[in-house]
Amino acid sequence: MDTVLLQLDAFLSRPFQGDDSGLWYVLMAFSVALPCSLLGCFLLLRRMALVGDAISHSVLPGIVIAYLIVKDLSSPWLLFGAGATGMLVTVLIEMIHSKTRVKQDAAIGISFTTLFALGILLVSLFTRNDHIDADCIISGELTHIIYYEALELFGKEVPMPLITSTIVAIGAIGAIIVFYRLLMLSSFDAGLTASFGINPKVVHYLLMAVLSLVVVTSFRAVGAILVIALLIIPAASAYLCTHRLKTMLLLSGIHSAISSLAAMYIYVNFECSIASAMVVAGLLLFIVAWLFGPVDGLVWKWKRRYFRSESYDYGEVDH
Amino acid sequence: MIPALETHDLTVTYHKRPVLYGVDLAIPEGNLVGIIGPNGAGKSTFIKSVMGVIPTVGGWVKVFGKPLKENITRVGYVPQRGSVDWDFPVTVMDVALQGTYGKLGMFRRVGKKERMLAEEALDKVGMLPYAKRQIGNLSGGQQQRVFLARAIAQDSDLYFMDEPFVGVDAATESAIISLLQDMRENGKTVVVVHHDLQTAPEYFDMLMLLNMRLLAFGKTEDVFTKELLQKTYGGGLTILSEIATAAAKENVKASHD
């Protein structure tokens, strides 16, 4: 019995042995996953899931252009450049969609792929840097955060990217709390919101601005492709488990915490990309929600069907 | 007396094509007004543009003698039921409370007063027992009642309702119309986009006949006439083909005589 406990203890503490890097990885993963999961709830309800994907791809040219100007990968100007192209893609989508007969899904397909392609072109033309390479763009390099400058906080050397993403996360969560009613109302009924004298487009662009900022900080950790998973999987899992928006936000946040932590264990045992591990862990949680979600989990449906059909059979035999 | 709603030369375009053209109108306070006209006549567009939900390209709107912005809390809006996602994770009570946000604003906390307003409104439409239900579990008629409760909770003086009778059962339809009549008795002005010509003369005090232009506006008995309806609907409507058949018969009779 003792040996089992000891083994469990060894397993649980394994990611956090040695230096603090394990702790920084988990915190970094969580600090990008949490704001993503909360914003994802609103994207999901507004049927804008793919806009998150569009932004995450479009930040690339912004990052590269800013890097080419300042020649420093840890400069805040990179965040600025990325945020700018992230916003640009939402404006492009809106323009194509409203000024032509092309519908929104097609407009998304046109705008972000082009910006992403432009980013790739710039990378291959102008940078031969280790930090901006194909791997980093596709799935990020979360473990690289420990190579950045660190700031001494609470007696520990905290890597700068973690500090940036934590500040962005706090800002995003603060914005969601402050503007909760506005977000809820305009997501549910844009007509009513407009009749109150509030332009739903303003809410849309505010949301897009916060989203761009969050996506930009996530880019470094998880790359361009996987951000969409951090945005949508927690929100979709939570959506299957509740009928209340506030509960959905809470569950979505819990989902992001569990998958960030689970990703660490997958990482130390299989030595794989943390970002990918996080998405896979998230998907497992989604499947759990799908099967056992208290609102309309598949298992409860099967159970109901099974018992119902059984009682019908019984009834037929009886009468 | 100051009219509840006054529009002058109200014009709206969609992709550069006009959908509403120079609507001049003054609706006196305390009336139940129906907007009728064929599909695509701009009925919903009219109330949306008056409410500032969609932009206008010309003309102006006054509500109780002032520009809409100054009196926006005196106006309530009930969008089409199909315009929202009924799987949205909110309860019946949450939706009713949304009505109070117009006056409360987007940042102040919901207090006792707002809760009472929402509860009373739900009670009026018979939906209070469902307050804790998720809105997706409601029937079409119940959904419409919730929307109406939200409007009542807005506590406005002038209401715009977009097709409140579409897809509801007969019981809900009569419940809604008696509620609207109650509102009128309390001095409210209610403007309703309506589809059904058969019930229109029975439900409304005044009618707007709309087909891109305002063809007629006035007391129901004055404007619900064959000629005006024909002008509004052009052709192709059952009621009009009936009129045409009747007219043809008379012609045949006349030629036989």
Question: How would you characterize this protein structure?
Answer:
The complex is a heterodimer of chains A (319) and B (257). With 319 residues, chain A is mostly helical. Chain A has a single domain (14-318), classed as ABC transporter involved in vitamin B12 uptake, BtuC (Orthogonal Bundle), CATH 1.10.3470. Helix content of chain A is 78%, strand content 3%. Chain A has 14 helices and 2 strands. Chain A has a two-stranded antiparallel ribbon. In chain A, helix 7 runs antiparallel to helix 10, helix 11 (227-241) packs across helix 12 (245-270) and helix 11 runs parallel beside helix 13 (274-292). Chain A starts with a helix and ends with a helix. With 257 residues, chain B is of the alpha/beta class. Chain B has a single domain (5-224), classed as P-loop containing nucleotide triphosphate hydrolases (Rossmann fold). Helix content of chain B is 38%, strand content 24%. Chain B has helices at 43-50, 92-98, 101-104, 112-124, 140-154, 170-185, 200-203, 220-223, 226-233, 238-256; strands at residues 5-14, 17-27, 32-36, 58-63, 66-67, 75-78, 158-162, 189-193, 206-211, 213-219. In chain B, strands 6-7-8-3-9-10 form a 6-stranded mixed beta sheet, with helices on both faces. The longest helix of chain B has 19 residues, at 238-256. Chain B is globular, with a radius of gyration of 20 Å. The N and C termini of chain B lie far apart (54 Å). The mean pLDDT of chain B is 87. The A-B interface holds A 45, 47, 178-179, 181-182, 184-185, 187-189, 191-192, 194-198, 239, 242-245, 247-248 and B 48, 51-53, 69, 72, 75-77, 79, 83-85, 88-91, 94-95, 98, 101-102, 106-107, 134, 136, 150.
